Amino acid sequence: MGLENFLDLGKVPDGERILEQLQIVEVANAEEISLAPIPLIEHFRQGLGRFKGGYARGLGIGGLSNRYMEQELIKTCEEQATKHADDLEKRISNLGDTIKMQADLINQLHNLVEDLQNQANEYKNARSENENVSGIKLSESQLQQISAFVMQRSK
Which residues form a coiled coil (predicted)? Predict the structure, then answer.
């Protein structure tokens, strides 16, 4: 069925008759229509009353192309923003782990400093007791030599 049977030049067809004839042509040429480029199919559907949103607003092919490009740009930007947000979340998680490790290390160092201060206080107390008991006052260098000797012997 071709277009010569589609229009009858002597009469002005009503919309219902045109729609019936278009549906007949669609059924007869379904294979060719399915192989046609997308814009042709969309124009054929417009004739059958299945409007795309853009056609109903009178955008036309150029407007639809621009709209499609804008939508693709928005999708791309959204995907990039989502990926960036995911990367930032991973980075924040890594930084949180690093901060926790550093806090643990700081606590260990504080405990070590407290232990060293306690040992220093014990050493000072022991030295003052030694001076009180023996009545001998040792110089700092002598005390260091004695403590080094004791350390070597304890190993």
Answer: 99-133
Q: For residues 91-107, give the mean pLDDT.
A: 95
Out of 5-9, 11-15, 140-144, give the one with best mean pLDDT. 140-144
Nearest in space to 50 (alpha carbons), one of 23, 12, 69, 13: 23
C-alpha 143/C-alpha 37 separation (Å) is 98
* C-alpha distances out from residue 116 to 11, 36, 112, 123, Å: 110, 86, 6, 10
Instruction: From 62, 64, 82, select the one nearest 72 (Cα to Cα).
Output: 64
Query: How far is residue 113 from each of residues 95, 133, 144, measured CA to CA in Å?
Result: 26, 30, 20
Q: Give the span between the Cα atoms of 76 and 53, in whole angstroms.
A: 22
DSSP 57: T
> What whole-number distance in Å separates Cα of residue 143 and Cα of residue 137?
10
Distance between CA atoms of 67 and 56, rounded to whole angstroms? 14
How many angstroms from the chain centroid is the CA of residue 55? 36
Domain range list for the chain: 1-50, 51-154
pTM over 0.85: no
